[in-house]
Amino acid sequence: MDIRIMQYFLAVIREGTISGAAEALHVAQPSLSRQMRELEEELDVILFERGNRRITLTEEGLVLRKRAEEMISLMQQTEDELSQVKNNTTGTIRIGAGESWAFQYIAQVATELTHEYPGIKFNVKSGDSIDLMDELGKGLLDFALVFSDPDPSIYQFVTLPGADMYGVLMRKDSPLAKKKTLTMQDLLSEPVIISRGAQRHFSSDEVLSKLNITATYNLVYNASVMVKEGMGYAITFDRLINTSGESELTFVPLNPKIKIHGKLIWKKYQILSPSIKKFIEKMNVIL
Question: What pTM, to 2 d.p., does this model score?
Answer without folding.
Answer: 0.71
